[in-house]
Amino acid sequence: MTEKVTSKLNLQETRLSTELAYAGSFLKVDKDVVSLPDGQTATREYIRHPGAVVIIPLFDDGRILLEKQFRYPLDRIFIEFPAGKIDPGEDPLICAQRELREETGYTATDWSFVCTIHNAIAYSDEHLDIYLAKGLTAGKAALDEEEFLEVFTATLPEMLDWIKSGHITDVKTIIGTFWLEKILAGKW
User: Fold this and answer.
1) Start and end of every Nudix hydrolase domain (predicted)?
2) Which of 14, 32, 113, 141 could anchor a disulfide with 18, C-beta 3.0 to 4.6 Å?
3) Rounded average pLDDT over 35-53
């Protein structure tokens, strides 16, 4: 559960008007005029996103299930945890279970909610709910029509080295790895 952060100062911006600047099949961009704490006005443009889930699939032997996937905006292949968009009205845990099965073919018997992160607070309302999945059983993946990825395993020390060296730069995977390190050490 997220607690509301308060401040001694008035930091709140108030929406005066909003218009849809762009509507795609997946993302929408709003352009709002806001009143600032000092009474001035400003424009805020931001991406509306339905939210997503991230899965940390952990095998009994400590290996971690990962994906390699090409990401068009940065024109490169990334190492990532399995993840996917929450459908309208879909429970995030059900989405996590579906995404793990569709992308990797694996199912899990033990699911734990880890945390919610907001990965792009300056320009998007996107949130990601992170889950730890254990008790993994292999199955057949059912990728979306336009989805291509490679599934592989790594150890936590390998992942930490890849983060340190800049080989892993995906923020959801970095945060998930740091959480996993604390969980496995019994600190969180």
Assistant:
1) 45-176
2) 32
3) 96
